[in-house]
Amino acid sequence: MRRTLLATAALLPTLALAACSSDPATTKTAAPAGSSAIAAASQDVVSGERKVDAVAALLPEDVRKAGSLRLGAAVGSPPTAFYPDPATKKAAGLDVDFADAVAKVLGITIQREDASFETTLPALRSAITESRISPPEHP
């Protein structure tokens, strides 16, 4: 568990750079200033990302074999992570797009665990989740 956590933390800078690359043929334009977060959430900004074998090879073997990573994340308010349609409980936002893009670069899927910010670190320690992405909620 500790090895998985350390490897995940060590990979974040590399993954961030890889996920930030863009292909002009697949890059979508950002929502115009002033548009609502819900309208922006409907834009697909991840489909252009592809697996990068050299980056995926850096994952711990158990994560590569499992093909997925459990991610604890707080779903709160736009623009980071929110439910555009609370009835569907399908999260959207910057954190969601970032995690999905990183997963595509790594060639894995994300199993999201909805959690409050305060519970994401204890969940890592107890192996309920293997990674976390959640900024503190603003009052």
From TrEMBL:
Tell me the leader sequence span: 1-18
According to the entry, every stretch annotated as the Solute-binding protein family 3/N-terminal domain falls at: 69-126
Q: Which UniProt keywords apply?
A: Signal
Checking Pfam families in the record gives: SBP_bac_3
PROSITE patterns hit by this protein: PROKAR_LIPOPROTEIN, SBP_BACTERIAL_3
Q: Which domain of life is it from?
A: Bacteria
Q: What's this protein's family per the entry?
A: Belongs to the bacterial solute-binding protein 3 family.
Official protein name in the record: Extracellular solute-binding protein (Family 3)
